[in-house]
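so the lab meeting is tmrw and i was supposed to have these ready like two days ago... anyway. pasting both below. for each one the top line is the aa sequence and the line under it is the structure tokens. i havent really looked at them closely yet so no promises
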Amino acid sequence: MAGKSTSWVVVALLVLMASLMIGPAREDSATVDETTFLSAGYSYWTGNRFYLVPDHSPLGQMLPAMPLLVMNVRLSESAKALIEGRAGYPWAVRWKGEPAALTQLYPQGRNDWYFVSTPESQILGQMLVYDGTNDGDAMMLAGRLVQILVTLGVGLIIFLWVRRVSSNNLAALLGLGLWVFNPHALAYGHLIITDPEGALGIVAALYTFALLLEKPTVRMAAICGAMTGLALLLKYTSMMLVPMYLVLGLIYRQNLRHAPVKWGKLLLIAAGALWATVLLAYFPHWSPPPPISQAQAQLLGVPGWLPAFRPLLIPGEFFKVLALKLAQSSWGHDGYLMGEWSTRGWWYYFPLAFTVKSPAAFLVLVGVAVVLALKRFQSMRPLELVPWVGAALYLGVSMTSRVNVGVRHLLPIIALLCIGIACAARYASKDMYRKVIYTLFGWQAVAAVWAYPLYIPYYSELVGGAQNGYKYLVDSNYDWGQDAKRLKKFLDARGIQHIYLDYFGTQYSIEYLKIPNTRVGPEEARQIKQGVLVVSVSELVRPGWEWLRETRQPIARVADTLFVYQFP
């Protein structure tokens, strides 16, 4: 395929992907975390320190908030008080452990640097977007358009990576197409969350590392270091790059042994570029963490290494995010898997989530590509091997985490697998094998287009599709509060004037849409004599709603995620 025509195909595929995401970007209501990230990013741009959402990298929050700088954003007095720390919530979050009363965790008064402002940031986000002061829909769409561009950027790197491996433009287009028509990318690539940035940063950093292995120059070492630093600033799961680099270094240790002095110099340059990138992002906040007593650190669950090495940890805010992430990962998070609840997680959560949430065609393609790649393992270039090693290690590390809430965390793996499949497709020696590969790609593309615009609750044909998805996973895998606008249309179409509601999402968005409702829990719902009850399935699968699941059938389901019941 000629170079000029290939460029047009690339543009067409990226435009098509954008089109598949713009619809959901308009129609989806704010999911659980989006308003939080948007407001935090905006507060950082307007000069406030990295106080809100301290357990996430700042740049990943600031990117989608950029359009707000040219919009007429207004802050209510309540929102200003939250940003400035003049208002707060009566309970506080520990770095590691259960939340507790604010007065219990901070008996001598709140230490703002060690304070985890999770409730405050959530309330601020809901106020900023949906308290009626601003055009909430316009703000959300603006932020989501940035995220779409980020997701398209991942696709472009996939194309460039595969084309760098081979002059076969068809293979490069296959890699891009697998990303364009991947329900994972379409579901989360348009949301104001840090996962698209995480995929962009990790894939870009691994690409530059693979290039460094193939062509070890000072320039490439500096680029690789800077890109790794940027990845950390976009999302802190990029810490997984460290074990990836180490394993890849072991695989190609012979190359390193032939020129140890040269490689030592290149590694120092890469490390310096990495740290310069981090320092630049945190300028002028280069102070270390403030002192904290041992008793207070133990009460809050602050990891011991942070106070111990405090004077050396510059910039302090960078290491605060790192410490919080490590603490939360080891502590866990309330998660659901196939009818069970746990705060400690399951080692097989992410492999299972990947399986049930991926198109069957994509799973078969991964299997075929692995077989093809293993046959050429000994002769594979770094650019060919890095995506497989990166994906395998990312999955392996993820399986040790106790935070099991969403397949969205695997977006970097999805992108790396698209690269691996496309590179391995070149090894298909017979026309029949190549036809099978491209037929599977076509099957995946049809499945993705068919699911439009409901990509978040997408599930594989192997488990019965979206209708049955909640039986396996919920939360951001299925029902993340994205269907409030669809609920509004459903109620208006049927002339329903009032509902009882248990909604897994932003209540402010319900009020913003002017949906007359009475919030109820499972016990209050038992008292309903007459009326319509709507329950988000992420709430419905909890033990308290067992009586409803066993005694009644819904009269309707809104976008699969909202179950509607009629009383009596």
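ok protien two:
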Amino acid sequence: MAHSEPLCPSLSLETAINRCEIIRRQLAAAGVFADPAASTEGGHTSTSWRISPCPFLISKEQLEFFTTLGPQLLSFYQAVNRLYLDSVKGIQPAWIARYLDQGKPEGLVTFSRMKRFRDVLPAVIRPDVIPTQDGMVITELDSVPGGIGLTAAMSQIYADVNPASQESGTSNDAGPQASLALSHSYQIVGGRDGMLQGFASMLNAVQGAHKGCAVILVSDEAREYRPEMSWLAAQLRARGLPAYCVEPRDVRFTEEGLRLPTETGEQPIAVLYRFYELFDLMNIPKAELIQYAAKKDRVAITPPYKPALEEKLAFALLHHPVLRPFWEKELGAECWLHLSSVMPSTWVLDPAPMPAIATIPGLQTGGRAVADWQDLAMASQKERHLVIKPSGFSDLAWGSRGVSVGHDLSQTEWAGALKNALDSFPRTPYILQEFHKGRLFDMEYLDTVTQTTARLSGRVRLSPYYFVIDGQAELAGILATVCPADKKVIHGMKDAIMVPCALQPGHEPANTRP
């Protein structure tokens, strides 16, 4: 494979190194970046990574793809919500609701079905998108994503180190459209402050008529993300929005609603951004009181307490042949075809026995249709380009935990992962999903040992952030995570490069490789 041109061909070595040092210092000052020696991977977003002098460049066509994708994913959430509620009512097959409720506490399921929350959807949408040789593939869909504060901080920093941004005279308070016109050099997707403005507008839209401050509630389970969410809250306060990043124990409950002690006195909480997973509710202080306040409409909460909308097995429902008429009606034929092409084939690993004449749609091994999951246990390595992962409502279902990549395992390990998934079905359903290999990209980064730039050939995960404002999903920024080519699962780690995405007008991305 021929190497591409350098990502920043116009930068001298000295300029690239200086730019990396500036970026690293500013990220550290924001509290979102730590010394690599202090980094831990453990499946979480790392607190350190490799610094690149430039953002990840995307083409106009790719930007159009991401701009269009947000409204389509919002339609998908609306359709999943309708499908679930129709299944509960008996309008759609009952097994749909059973799958989506599997392993959930009865009280949480009952709460999620309340009429008050019937049409409420997540206000933040973030898919994980892998560019492959055959196009874009969505591997995950997250409504409680990390990286919001990180992407916001990096968008600002990379916009500010772009020399042409200084020449353009664009102020730090300029809107997204002004920021997009920064220069011919590169243009941060969403603009310098697009993430901040999008998050603030989303909170205002969710708040509605409630009076008070905004709270970003981060659980102990998600404590690694507190620094970026604290930075985000501080930035919002500096822009006039009273927002605070707190722990659950900081919130005070009263009969009138939730309140938060602050330096300027106690304030009512109008909107609460839930930065914790629903499986973790039993470990969150005052969780029941927070639910009670939401039930009585004394606080607005997003994402809503609707675990059915946080299951990866929704991808399997999209591909289920019996449900095709529903999807085509709800999404429209064009949207359904597009989502079916970018969401990989997915199956629910349900151990229930099937009739002798039944097969699993679209799944083969050894040239034969699969009629029993155990048939997959002896699949060859070439046939195991498949991924097993928990569907949701589990501490293994986020941060790349619990993921088994079939062709990366021995036969024994693969059979064990399959058995574990099937055995876990009553409490945590697992899914089986096609594995799509990402294409290679070249990026430069600062080698802190040699204090010079080096090149990484790796595979990238593109994570666009959409904020739902007045019923519209608006793209605010894209985080790129580039991992070494030998990593099968792409996530934040100390060996990865993490940067915001930018558009280079009139050019294809300078860092692609065939």
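from a quick look at the 2nd one: Residues 66 and 263 are 41 Å apart (CA to CA). The first helix runs from residue 13 to 29. will dig more after coffe
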